[in-house]
Amino acid sequence: MDWLKRLPVVGPWTARLTVTHAWRSYERLDRVKWTRLAAAMTFVSFVSLFPLLTVAAAVTAALLSDDRQRELENRIAEQVPGISDQLDIAGLVDNAGTVGIIAGAVLLLIGVNWVGQVRDCLRAVWELPDDPDNPLVTKVKDAGILLGLGGAVLVTLATTTVASAAVGWSAGHLGLDEHGWGSALLRVTAFAFAVLADFLVLLYVLTLLPGAEPPTRRLLVAALTGAVGFELLKLLLSGYIQGVATKSMYGAFGVPVALLLWINFTSKLVLFCAAWTATGSKAEEGAAARRQPAGAPEPGVRNGRTGGAPGPAAATGG
């Protein structure tokens, strides 16, 4: 980057950029090999998605009427031609309890592992050592964190669903034009409610999972940035899925790929938010450098090597 700073036009802008908190947060991410951490988080999240979808399918199937079952079969047949003969929605409905219990148990096991892997990745961003607790105690703690996080997510989903429904109901009863200012204002209101819900979840994730206590201002800025970014990624994903879901040839392949990319982008967003909370101000870093003994390695340097996660499990996802 030094050669960019010497350029006549972009040099001053580059110099200003490299002293911002956002850039120093990125430098921390680059030091801890954040692409590997994001890949680990993406893998465990994508694997955890299958038992979660199975539980959701079992609960939904138990609540379906006969007409809704046939409609669901027809919709799936439209999206994936040739699979309708292999579907047994009625069997899923009849065995919804058994399927739900088995999938719930698998989801709990995978979910606890997901919490552990995400915690290791966030602690790697903070450049903290591996948790020295007893493995059994750690698993119990992770189960508690998973239940708390699941409850927080359910509350946020309920909040955003009610807000969206209220916006639609208000627009319909007020007779607002779909493309008018009134409808746009209601959509912005629903977006703001969704951002608020995501903000509260990120406060939970950025503090409890890594076991850190970042300064309040940095935590609030990181959580708000992540919440807005998460909602924008959701809009991007939903727009892409709506575009490819109507094409039966591409829908079966485009949706999983889009979902995988969305999980990866979301993981990188969470890591950036964690780096924002973990990166100190210029004054704090200067004070830490002055307190550092002469000859001691720089922050993030271990055994003569820069970067890397504090433990092998954090960098490899296992």
Automatic annotation (TrEMBL):
<feature type="compositionally biased region" description="Low complexity">
    <location>
        <begin position="289"/>
        <end position="300"/>
    </location>
</feature>
<keyword id="KW-1003">Cell membrane</keyword>
<feature type="transmembrane region" description="Helical">
    <location>
        <begin position="37"/>
        <end position="64"/>
    </location>
</feature>
<feature type="transmembrane region" description="Helical">
    <location>
        <begin position="96"/>
        <end position="116"/>
    </location>
</feature>
<feature type="transmembrane region" description="Helical">
    <location>
        <begin position="145"/>
        <end position="172"/>
    </location>
</feature>
<feature type="transmembrane region" description="Helical">
    <location>
        <begin position="219"/>
        <end position="241"/>
    </location>
</feature>
<protein>
    <submittedName>
        <fullName>Membrane protein</fullName>
    </submittedName>
</protein>
<keyword id="KW-0472">Membrane</keyword>
<dbReference type="Pfam" id="PF03631">
    <property type="entry name" value="Virul_fac_BrkB"/>
</dbReference>
<dbReference type="GO" id="GO:0005886">
    <property type="term" value="C:plasma membrane"/>
</dbReference>
<feature type="transmembrane region" description="Helical">
    <location>
        <begin position="253"/>
        <end position="276"/>
    </location>
</feature>
<keyword id="KW-1133">Transmembrane helix</keyword>
<feature type="region of interest" description="Disordered">
    <location>
        <begin position="285"/>
        <end position="318"/>
    </location>
</feature>
<dbReference type="InterPro" id="IPR017039">
    <property type="entry name" value="Virul_fac_BrkB"/>
</dbReference>
<feature type="compositionally biased region" description="Gly residues">
    <location>
        <begin position="305"/>
        <end position="318"/>
    </location>
</feature>
<feature type="transmembrane region" description="Helical">
    <location>
        <begin position="184"/>
        <end position="207"/>
    </location>
</feature>
<keyword id="KW-0812">Transmembrane</keyword>
